[in-house]
Design brief:
- Chains A, C: One of its GO terms (biological process) is cysteine metabolic process.
- The complex is a heterotetramer, with two copies of chain A (413 residues) and two copies of chain B (154 residues).
- Helix content of chain A is 40%, strand content 16%.
- Chain A has 15 helices and 17 strands.
- The radius of gyration of chain A is 22 Å and the shape is globular.
- The N terminus of chain A is likely disordered.
- Chain B has a single domain, classed as Sufe protein. Chain: A (Alpha-Beta Complex).
- In chain B, helix 3 packs antiparallel against helix 4.
- The model of chain B has no long low-confidence stretch (mean pLDDT 86).
- Classes of the chains: A alpha/beta (413), B alpha+beta (154).
- Bound molecules: pyridoxal-5'-phosphate (PLP) (2 copies).
- One pyridoxal-5'-phosphate sits at the interface of chains C and A.
């Protein structure tokens, strides 16, 4: 059975009606938003959750003894339960709220990094987003940790044999790889990677920024030790991200930032830290955004991650087919398992010109190095154009994309 | 271009033509002034080489790896500054920047811009103002030019 | 002229109408919200700014070549100009967006701290919030920096003579003190502190979390080198804060977190950093919250910081008067210059019981150590009750507070 | 209390009375079991001392620095557990926790809670359920008790 035979199981009209922005026009054309991998649009449920919090029930949390503070604390802490269930984490106390995925990874590089010893190594892959690369470089330069790069195959899959070789000397303390590439769409074989890492005595971190959006995530089934994601790609607000880690690791790690709420007692001489997860949440957190992330998760789950995955698999297969027919178009990467992200180039047309001309026609895609410069170098490119899909994307939008690409090519050649 | 593709206003025929077939691409055998421009955001880069004769730009070549806007901007810049003094060339550059950044197309200020600072074919880039993220593509060659002219020697 | 003669210059009815939450009831009583120092309520202008962004104009910023991204980038970067003007900063490039004040101070402790040498010292005061204490302890323990504590007087003012003594040996690299105490309400003499610090070769950081809300801030007139504040206390959303620092300092400081958007070029071997302020803004920032912070600043400035300051000075004087009449009530601190924050204790009634009984009557105050445990110890207390005022607070609310406190005292004694 | 002060439901007269004049405050001359509870959020603390006789609690004292809720909870706990076996005392504690945390007042589960686990005057704390931030104030003495009873020796 070809993937093209997947039934489109979502009620797209009803879903799209939940996203006010999808009714907007851009350059007098209806908006075709194919840049969800950069950041997704927000459903009414999320917009209302934020507005209602600010309109009816808001105060600073945790230390307040009054009604508004108690209720806001409950709403905030309730999202920890939602996120734990969303990731199938063993405990709500393993959920740390951060600004975004980037901060979550920096937190691990700082605090778990402090437990690594000079001479130990961290392995990342050739297809990492800068968010899962630069923090490890900074750790390397600060702490004498070796940084090893697991190569990818020409098809855009992680080279597991090469990874095995990198793990062989037993020096690796952490394997930190993406669970889904934001450029190639590659979904990595997380369980296999975790097993290899664990067999070599290493912990494993998955950057789930892209993948949690598209499929059901189960950190226990994946064998993950750390998992990160970012709210704004999951139809939630900006300013909120998540680090999940095994409690035992969080307990052992020193705090990242100091301040209110992360302490147990403070004297000028010495402070002691609050329990996990609060040890890692210094200062007033993104209260309103966390509550809205909860609304996003509840909303996405009401649709169902499996239905979303099926819808996007259908769309992706359809798009790969349609784009192959565009003259001069070259799809970058042929991974074994791909999420709803497609990078491409076009002979004789620079990706920036593609993006601008699509934009003139109401179509939003991304062009550039996608915060993955070393991957671009590996691919021998300086930039690609990238179309990415969300649960609100429909087949007709892919048709508009493909048709417009044909015209752009005609225009330039 | 078929009529359904919106973008003709932005990608003037001149821009498309020059990006496809630049007239000033390449290197000079004896460059007196060299400047480079690089946009770290996208990796586009351009190298501008000049020769001067009696304080006038007598030869220009550019090597550009970039988008159509950047390529055409480099080529049309080369054409425009040929024969100008360095000061005159930089004035054209200022005026070009103003064209891209300001909300209204700059009128010729009396006295301030001499005739030589007129933009001519560079006016093709005016619609870029509506695409701010692309302005730096058009400015890149001028950044390289500025660098070339600010060096005392090669 | 007594402060009680200040005219109440704000149109309080019109202002209160802008805050939907102020119409709520708590335990069947109208909400009297006197906990703004912990976090302020949000005006419609802020709520709408967030909702409108998500409804009509949103995408990830900086790297997008399409209309939604360009417009969102403009809105986000426009707030940098607003904040620069709000603080009278010399340049928009000196404004770094953070999650909150806590992160801003941690950023300085990490990145400016990296420029300090073992043996150098940081001076803080006895009345710091944990946010301006714990990060410096962590720096001390990590980098061999000495931490010196400038005492306060019994009235609750910074002891300038003692500060002078702490600066005398020329080893101090940074004086980091609050611009307004969240417990005592003390407004510190920032200019005098800055002059003393500079004369001793030290830089100076002011924690403006409380003070920016109440008065016009001019970082140049204050002679500040670093200044921090937090959006949620300034009637803005959670998840957004600000670090201002002199460009020269920001240029010299290494980055705090690594990731997308803060780099210039990345290879596996080496990365180079973007220019200031982007070097300090890794990953997708709090886009929606930053835009809403801009709305908050615009709204507050439309009322006028001077009018707000006058209103609050009037309220504070009125409250000090009214509270003095409550039997058994003791106001903590008599600083020379006080913002709209009053801490108090009551003989025979624990602050927590005060807070709970006020809450039963619809009145929200805070009770506890206010994230300033060492200050509590200095004052010989474990907790205080604290009432704090915002621009929407009115005299009648203070009357309700004072009357209810009298009844609480009767209830317990 | 004047009738306009809302809070009487929460601060039962018994709670107010015991917080003002605790009956079990102080220390034992010969404590066999000691436990401490501290709430880092507010600095409140309590120390519970016990003496046992034939596996029954024969004497209890507490030293408590805290709010009215915490003080009264310590004092009423002391009164309630006097004469119980350690197991019975801990069962009362479980039931007390359930009272505070669960949405409905727990009915006596058949068999599960014997008569000795009835809450009696501790029911005065039931309205705390509406003030979740204060629940730990009432639980603090029970935390100390648990610690006291989990130690094998003093
Ligand atoms: C004086 C002072 N500094 C710092 C902070 C920390 O602010 P935030 O929690 O928003 O980081 C606060 C507020 O809690 C404060 O009052
Ligand atoms: C794979 C991957 N990792 C990390 C990130 C960083 O996410 P954020 O910018 O929200 O921290 C992104 C998105 O930009 C991503 O696609």
């Amino acid at each position: 059975m070809s993937v093209l035979q997947h039934k489109n199981t979502l009620d797209s009209a009803a879903i799209r009606a939940q996203f006010p922005i999808l009714g907007e026009k851009v350059h007098d054309r209806p908006l075709v938003f194919l840049d969800s991998a950069a950041s997704a649009q927000k459903p009414v449920a999320v917009i209302d959750a934020m507005a209602n919090t600010m309109r009816t029930q808001y105060a600073n949390i945790h230390r307040g003894l009054h009604w508004m503070s108690e209720r806001t604390t409950e709403a905030y802490e309730g999202v920890r339960d939602l996120v734990a269930a969303f990731l199938n984490a063993p405990s709500r106390n393993e959920i740390v709220f951060t600004r975004n995925s980037t901060e979550a990874i920096n937190l691990v590089a700082h605090s778990f990094g402090a437990l690594l010893k000079p001479g130990q190594a961290v392995v990342i892959s050739e297809m990492e987003h800068h968010a899962n690369l630069v923090p490890w470089q900074m750790l390397r330069d600060r702490a004498g940790i070796e940084l090893r790069i697991a190569p990818i195959t020409d098809a855009g899959d992680l080279d597991l044999e090469a990874l095995q070789t990198l793990l062989a000397d037993g020096k690796v303390g952490l394997v930190a790889v993406t669970h889904m590439s934001n450029v190639l769409g590659t979904v990595t074989p997380a369980k296999a990677i975790a097993d290899m890492a664990h067999a070599a005595g290493a912990q494993v971190l998955f950057d789930g920024s892209q993948s949690v959006v598209h499929r059901k995530t189960d950190v226990q089934a994946l064998g993950a030790d750390f998992y990160t994601f970012t709210g704004h790609k999951l139809y939630g607000p900006t300013g909120i991200g998540v680090l999940w880690a095994r409690k035992e690791l969080l307990d052992a790690m020193p705090p990242f930032m100091g301040g209110g709420d992360m302490i147990s007692t403070v004297t000028f001489e010495r402070s002691t830290w609050a329990n996990v997860p609060h040890k890692f949440e210094a200062g007033t957190p993104a209260i309103i955004e966390t509550i809205a992330l909860g609304a996003a998760i509840t909303w996405v789950e009401s649709i169902g991650m499996d239905a979303i995955a099926a819808h996007e698999a259908y769309l992706t297969a359809y798009a790969l087919n349609r784009l192959q027919d565009v003259p001069g178009l070259n799809i970058v990467g042929q991974p074994q398992d791909r999420g709803g992200v497609i990078s491409f180039t076009m002979a004789d047309v620079h990706p920036h010109d593609i993006a601008t001309l699509l934009d003139r026609n109401g179509i939003a895609i991304r062009a550039g190095h996608h915060c993955a410069e070393p991957l671009m170098r590996r691919l021998g490119l300086t930039a690609t154009a990238r179309a990415s899909f969300g649960l609100y994307t429909v087949k007709e939008e892919i048709d508009v994309l493909a048709d417009t690409l044909v015209r752009i090519r005609d225009f330039f050649v | 271009m078929t009529q359904v593709l919106d973008g003709s206003a932005l990608y003037d025929q001149l821009i498309v033509a020059r990006s496809r077939t630049p007239l000033f691409a390449g290197r000079l055998e004896q460059a007196e002034k060299v400047g480079n421009g690089k946009n770290p955001l996208c990796g586009d880069k351009t190298r501008v080489e000049l020769a001067l004769d009696h304080n006038h730009i007598s030869q220009v070549r550019h090597q550009t790896r970039g988008c159509a806007i950047c390529l055409a901007a480099a080529d049309l810049m080369a054409e425009r500054i040929l024969g100008l003094s360095p000061d005159q060339a930089l004035k054209v550059g200022q005026r070009f920047s103003a064209l891209l950044v300001e909300d209204t197309v700059p009128a010729t200020h009396e006295g301030e811009f001499e005739e030589n600072a007129a933009l001519g074919p560079l006016m093709a880039f005016a619609p870029l103002r509506a695409h701010r993220s692309r302005i730096r593509c058009a400015e890149l060659p001028w950044v390289a030019l500025k660098e070339a002219l600010s060096h005392d020697d090669v």
